[in-house]
Recover the amino acids of this structure.
């Protein structure tokens, strides 16, 4: 298997061809590597990754505030050495990514303070705020600092450095005509625009010597109007190679099309492999590629077909730190797939610690110990959705005797509705993995098993977990019982079909995704929403927002907002908007108007048995809330003081027994 074959980047020998792609992490206040970050990287090295590439490390904060790790202090040297030691002990190599800054992508010190960038272009996060061009002296100072930063990483024991030259950040801003309007030696034609990046390569090479590996991550194709096209990207490739780098880390997109750089659930597999393949045709050094390569068969195909020399996992490594080991052990069936929710990124951008919806131990590797129970425990789980399955698996792994009752014919709950559309296969894959884990565990599963309070109380359980999920809210609309009406979840799971003319009531996440799925085959799709805009109450990461917006635009769906449905018939519906009534012909009306928790059993159980409610049975929320709630409840079962964070508590509503 080529994935597991040794490889080399310059003088750096690697045990396999899989690397952990660079992503930002929480830092210590001074910018040095946080202990949680060190453990997080170490866990992926233990999991078999041959190379760990860190997120960006700023070489100076003279022109920008702290945005990520910062190197250059005694403390940062101490922490980097510790990181090097942990990674090497785990059998992997470490590459430190270094950056001169974010330029127009930075958050300014204050809204009225212009960021320093390549040119006087608009700040990304503050539209209307124009950046101030860096002076030639400042540019040259940054070039020198990049050399110093590389020497610092080498002195700490790192095996390589990577130049942060991609994605619309500062180096890429200089290299692109979209953001570089300079008329001096750092602007003009491509060679002029590339001068900043190429000078950095020389500075780094002079600082680390001829044999120390230098990787360059860059963006040969932006995929936005006015951005870099492939022809220029290939010429850029030639210039970078001539400068003397040892590896080309190919990236795609920028913040204006963020989902092309950091993919979401809506993107296809291997979405950047075509670009790496184009670079590979002219490459004289190894090519590294990323972008939804979480399926080992897909990743192997990229290598076998010569589209790249090394494949990287970013968010996939968060979901499954043991990805490489599981591939080597022929346990690919047990790889936890990334579901493209980008809760990890969203949490970081909100100022919190990084989390993974499907891996509760991510970035908390030492904070959630799972210990065997000290006394016999019997637990009953009602509901086989994500929270119920996570609780059952985790509790059974601790030695708890667990029984799971699911009133439907199969486990998975709403995961199969969420993963119903073809463009959300990632979620379906996750559901399949979890269902298989339950059946491979010691959990006793009973499907088609509805529960009564009397039966539950007669079981003598030490713990009862209500993971009963939520049901569709059926709005009080005249005609709601019409033959044309179906529920979104039934449609998404294929229990019911739909006709050629479809109306969806509700433009939340479920309604919009259902509409996009229906639009693949229906003649017309109209979505009617009471709010003044679609997705009004949805909170998700900006790249998911951009990706979904593009999907909806491509689907040619008609949205009617600020409207109230007045009546439904077998042939369509009538809505009121701005004092006027409009009738739409439809053979199918889909209800996607929110969810109501299935918590009716709680009143009959509380005070009579130790019962807790998790996931959507608390409040219709997210996969993250359900999974983390189930995990935390299971790992603390039988302990006196559960160590729960505010985020954990948001998904758990415990009810104490008498």
């Amino acid at each position: 298997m080529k994935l597991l074959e040794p490889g080399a980047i310059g003088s750096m020998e690697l045990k396999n061809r899989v690397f952990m792609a660079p992503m930002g992490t929480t830092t210590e206040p001074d910018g040095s590597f946080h202990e949680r970050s060190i453990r997080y990287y170490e866990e992926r090295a233990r999991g078999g990754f041959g190379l760990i590439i860190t997120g960006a490390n700023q070489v100076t904060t003279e022109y920008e505030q702290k945005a990520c790790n910062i190197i250059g202090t005694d403390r940062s040297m101490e922490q980097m050495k510790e990181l090097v030691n942990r990674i090497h002990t785990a059998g992997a190599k470490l590459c430190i990514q270094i950056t001169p800054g974010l330029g127009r992508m930075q958050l300014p010190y204050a809204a009225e303070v212009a960021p320093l960038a390549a040119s006087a272009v608009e700040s990304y996060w503050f539209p209307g705020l124009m950046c101030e061009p860096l002076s030639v002296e400042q540019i040259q100072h940054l070039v020198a600092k990049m050399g110093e930063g590389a020497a610092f990483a080498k002195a700490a024991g790192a095996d390589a450095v990577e130049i942060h030259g991609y994605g619309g950040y500062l180096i890429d801003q200089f290299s692109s005509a979209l953001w570089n309007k300079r008329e001096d030696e750092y602007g003009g034609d491509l060679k002029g625009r590339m001068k900043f990046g190429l000078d950095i390569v020389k500075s780094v090479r002079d600082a680390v010597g001829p044999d120390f590996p230098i990787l360059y991550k860059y963006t040969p194709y932006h995929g936005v109007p006015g951005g870099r096209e492939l022809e220029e990207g290939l010429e850029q490739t030639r210039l970078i190679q001539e400068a003397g780098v040892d590896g080309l880390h190919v990236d795609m997109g920028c913040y204006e099309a963020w989902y092309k750089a950091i993919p979401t659930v809506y993107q296809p597999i291997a979405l950047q492999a075509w670009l790496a393949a184009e670079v590979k045709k002219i490459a004289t050094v190894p090519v590294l590629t990323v972008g939804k390569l979480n399926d080992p068969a897909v990743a192997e195909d990229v290598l076998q077909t010569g589209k790249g020399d090394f494949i990287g996992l970013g968010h996939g490594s968060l979901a499954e730190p043991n990805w490489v080991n599981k591939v080597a052990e022929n346990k690919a069936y047990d790889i936890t797939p990334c579901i493209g929710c980008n809760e990890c990124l969203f949490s970081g951008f909100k100022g919190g610690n990084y989390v993974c919806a499907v891996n509760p131990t991510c970035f908390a590797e030492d904070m959630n110990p799972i210990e065997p129970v000290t006394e016999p425990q019997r637990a009953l789980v009602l509901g086989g959705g994500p929270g119920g399955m996570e609780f059952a698996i985790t509790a059974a792994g601790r030695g708890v005797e667990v029984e799971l009752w699911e009133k439907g014919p199969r486990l998975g709950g709403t995961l199969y509705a969420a993963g119903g559309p073809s463009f959300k296969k990632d979620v379906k894959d996750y559901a399949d993995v979890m269902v298989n884990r339950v059946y491979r565990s010691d959990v006793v599963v009973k499907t088609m098993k509805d529960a009564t309070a009397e039966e539950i109380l007669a079981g003598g359980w030490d713990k009862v977990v209500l993971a009963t999920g939520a049901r569709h809210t059926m709005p009080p609309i005249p005609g709601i019982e019409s033959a044309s009406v179906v529920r979104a979840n039934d449609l998404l799971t294929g229990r019911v079909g739909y006709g050629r003319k479809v109306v969806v009531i509700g433009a939340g996440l479920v309604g919009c995704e259902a509409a996009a799925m229906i639009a693949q085959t229906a003649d017309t799709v109209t979505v009617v929403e009471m709010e003044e805009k679609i997705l009004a109450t949805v909170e998700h990461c900006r790249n998911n927002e951009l990706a979904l917006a593009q999907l909806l635009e491509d689907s040619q769906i008609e949205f009617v907002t600020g409207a109230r449905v007045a009546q439904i018939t077998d042939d369509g519906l009538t809505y009121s908007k701005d004092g006027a009534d409009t009738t739409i012909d439809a053979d199918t009306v889909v209800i996607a108007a929110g969810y109501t928790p299935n918590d009716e059993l709680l009143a009959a159980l509380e005070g009579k048995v130790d019962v807790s409610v998790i996931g959507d049975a608390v409040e219709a929320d997210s996969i993250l809330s359900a999974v983390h709630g189930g995990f935390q409840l299971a790992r603390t079962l039988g302990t006196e003081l559960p160590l729960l964070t505010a985020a954990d508590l948001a998904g758990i509503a415990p009810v104490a027994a008498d």
